[in-house]
Amino acid sequence: MKDIYTVAHTHWDFEWYFTRQEARVQFIFHMDEVLEALETNQLDYYTLDGQMSIIEDYLALFPEKEVEIKKFVTAGRLFIGPWFTQIDEMTTSGESIVRNLKIGITEAKALGGVMRVGYLPDSFGQGQDMPKIYQGFDISHALFWRGMPREANARYFYWSSNDGSKVLTANIKNGYYAGVELVEQNQFDELAEKISTQTPSETHLLPVGGDQRAVDFDLKQRISLANQESEEATRFIESNYPVFFKSLENESEKLPELSGEFIEPSDSKIHRGIYSSRYDLKQVYDRLERSLTYQLEPLSVVAANHGIPVKQGLITSLWKIVARGQAHDSAGGCNSDKTNQDIYLRGVNGLQEAQSCVDYLLRKLSISLNHGQDNQVFLWNPLPFELTTIRKVALSTKTATFSLVDQKGQPVEVELLSQKRENAALLRRDPEAMSDEHYYVSEVAIECTLPSMGWLCFTVEETTVSVPQLTKATELENDWYVIQLKEGKLNLYSKELKKWYHDFLWFEDSGDEGDTYDYSPAFNDWFLKLDFSQHNQAMVEQGDLISRMTIEGEWALPFDLCSRKEQVTDGTVSYTMVLECNKQTNLIDVHLTLDNQVLDHRLRLMIATKTKAVVSTSDTPFGIIKRPIEEKHLPDWKEIGYKEEPTSMRPMLHLANLHDEKESWSFLTRGTKDFQVIDGERQQLAITVFRGVGYLGRPDTLRRPGDASGLQTKVVPTPDSQLVGTVVFEGSLVLDEFFDSQKLQTNYLETTQEALDYQTQELNRFTTPIQYFPVNPKSLIEDPRGKVTIDELTVVFSSLQATIDGTGIELRLYNPTDVAQTAPGKLSFDAPTEVKLLNLEGKVIDSVSENVTTLPMSAFKPGEIRTYGIFFNQKEME
Ligand SMILES: [Zn+2]
Predict the structure, then answer these.
(1) Which distant-in-sequence residues (6+ apart) come within 8 Å of 660 by Cβ?
(2) C-alpha of residue 327 to centroid of ligand 1, in Å
(3) Where in this chain does the record put each Glycoside hydrolase family 38 central domain (predicted)?
(4) Measured in angstroms, how far is the CA atom of residue 87 from the centroid of ligand 1?
């Protein structure tokens, strides 16, 4: 017997070649039909695409519809959640995925109940950590379409993660639209046959729906016709996803177990080139993720400890902005220009709110703690461990010369990086009529050890002694490296490895005749190696704390694909690149600014190593992944029917790495997400800076033969996606002796701690956009009891936030490796504390300790994600 569970649904792209606004209008009318179909019993069940964002947008306009929606959800007829948006799994951080689910589940529960199915029918690739994320939300069932390799030969299976989590999973190989044939064609046996291959299961799934597809009111008649006309052993059943999975559980013994990610273009396109599409959108949302996770949330906890309430409403609304920008098409950037403009602007708006809240808290805390004293600078560390670091701070002073002293009156080591004289006089049309009032804004580097979840305060003293400055040098040097520019080539010496790497860093330019979905080489391509031989200016500045090399120049490039074919360099891209090292870490910060004035090309940073690696390594939401440098199906992908060339372009979240037993090269990214390892005499780590293309989808590209992606019959030009104009690229290069993912994630974390300072001063009222507004100091809790300190941490910090009910703190850590961490570190608290274990949803799952001030953490099993609920003893605090 073949039981085919037929599920009426719609797949609702949040935005794509249309905007969110356009889709929303379609949706408000769609909802009339959904509610009518349920009310009149023309449909028994309906699934609203597993995401709450569209329902939230709908209820914002029609709050009166809440009662009706609740009625059908509670009755188990309308299925909503668990996601807030249909997320992209490959380029979003673990915290973003967790928050997306958490918000979606909370909203669905408020409307009567959540569909606990890990439902991602269209996401471009399935991440290896999804089973453990799902299990963290008590989700035991998952569904996806894209990415399953044909040789896995499985349609229904158990999908497992490295921590032992397992979810029963349906791979809807024929797409989420497979059931449209049931309502539009009469070949029922053929359909039943098609959707039941590659499995011993007798329970099958047929989703009936499609992109923004209207309700199929005749589903019942079509099911009944199909049951009359198809073979006796086949039964179509009107159903829903939870019921289907319940039934599939009965067949569990027959089903295989698989683990890992699914990114093969066997049954559908997977768009590996999407990781490098629209770098600008990815950069903005990456910044917002970083700002929320590593600054605003932990700083809000610090502020709450001092008595300033957490602005949870703002924080949740910012996570929703992140989630909307990380819907699968939105994150991909494979959209029309007007849609991408909307996505970009929403991200920028979110950043303004996140940054302003950080700015407000830094100011409120600082002015309240120093009791009105002027000219003190506070450096903050919201993270729950001590940080020894070099902080860059902008100070405003009356005089050009000044010094810093600590609270004991001892001088603090500080180095001047740049200085600007600013006008302080009332502006007049005639500059002669203005008085001579000025102040100085100086960027300085300060070496400091910041306590966990706390601050240091220094006094700025205006003196006549100059601040030490960087001096001109011929090569850049710190405790780890020497970097030279010789004859246009960059040479690196590693003091740790005692090795020279000549010509170790350059850029590569090549054509891109793909589209916003995929990079594809030009049909007549020309690769150019871009070094620094044509530079206009090169300068090395050396100090005790900071050393940097600045190179400015122009690269001559083909203007477009025609010039590239002719190998003519009739276009120019001017650049400024800064390589910077400091005294405290072995990171080489790379900062590149370009004026892109050429079309249809891809630019990559190339790092030439001496590794002999067989895999590339990068991070995933809660782990590390090793992938082959060359895919096994690269030679035969066309013969085996792959929908696109399985080029080894890889996504990264925080880091890309290439290592062997002798050396380990990493790139810590700040927004760009795409890398590739190029094999050769010297293996190269290629990091995509950006790529510019002019179309949403193109047919018959070199890497992706066949129909255009997106719209098959309409050309959609996207001139904005050429990214003409300023391009900014940032990240850090690290050369270590060994690969250590925990160390690298800590390095990464330190790069997220910029601009967490506040100077109490009246001279400069423009340090932040909200500095102009008066703010009252507040009487604060001076000796807060909500502080957590982690020592000897050997797992990775993921997040620190207030619990939703505001009674405690959620601290999330994870073990990225496949080996247990037996001594993961020790937690210390300033006051007796109750510690519980929470799941990812924030529900208490276990009690750890009732009244402790220190807690050696128990071993982390391989891949474990652990969330502590930390509740300070309320009575003790009062
Ligand atoms: Zn979609």
Answers:
(1) 611, 612, 613
(2) 8
(3) 269-347
(4) 10
Task: Report how far ligand 1's centroid is from the alpha carbon of 85 (Å).
Answer: 11
The class of domain 476-752 in CATH terms is: mainly beta
C-alpha to C-alpha distance for 445 and 131, rounded to whole angstroms: 44
Ligand 1 centre from 121 Cα, in Å?
8
- CA 11 to ligand 1 centroid distance, Å: 7
Looking at the structure, give the CATH architecture of the domain made up of residues 788-872: Sandwich (2.60)
How many angstroms is it from 123 CA to the middle of ligand 1?
A: 7
Are 156 and 168 in contact by the 8 Å Cβ rule? The answer is: yes
Q: Alpha carbon of 137 to those of 105, 291, 312, 682, 840: distances in Å?
A: 9, 25, 21, 45, 6
CATH fold label, 2-268:
7-stranded beta/alpha barrel (3.20.110)
Quote the ligand 1 centre to 13 CA distance (angstroms): 5
> What distance in angstroms lies between residue 466's CA and the mean position of ligand 1's atoms?
59
Q: How far is the CA of 16 from the centre of ligand 1 (A)?
A: 8
Q: What's domain 376-467's superfamily in CATH?
A: Golgi alpha-mannosidase II (2.60.40.1180)
Q: Please tell me the predicted confidence (pLDDT) of residue 805.
A: 78
Which residue, 274, 267, 208, is CA-closest to 236? 208
Query: Which helix (H) or strand (E) element contains residue 143?
Result: strand 141-144
438 CA → ligand 1 middle, Å: 56
Residue whose token pair is 């220190």: 854
151: which residues sit within 8 A by CB, 6+ positions away?
none
Of the candidate CATH numbers 1.20.1270.50, 2.60.120.260, 1.10.10.570, 3.40.720.10, the domain formed by 279-354 belongs to 1.20.1270.50
pLDDT at 874: 59
Q: How much distance in Å is there from the Cα of 572 to the middle of ligand 1? A: 37
Check: CB of residue 665 under 8 Å from CB of residue 657.
yes
**The predicted structure's pLDDT at residue 869:** 97
CA 49 to ligand 1 centroid distance, Å: 10
Residues in the chain predicted with pLDDT less than 70, given as ranges, are: 873-878
Q: How far away, in angstroms, is 124 Cα from ligand 1 center?
A: 9
CA of 86 to the centre of ligand 1 (A): 8
541-574 burial code (b ≥16 CB/10 A, e <16): bbbebbbbbbbbbebebbbbbebbeeeebebebe
- Cα(95)–Cα(106) distance, integer angstroms: 16
Domain borders along the chain are: 2-268, 279-354, 376-467, 476-752, 788-872
From the CA of 83, how far away is ligand 1's center (Å)?
14
Centroid of ligand 1 to alpha carbon of 669 (angstroms): 27
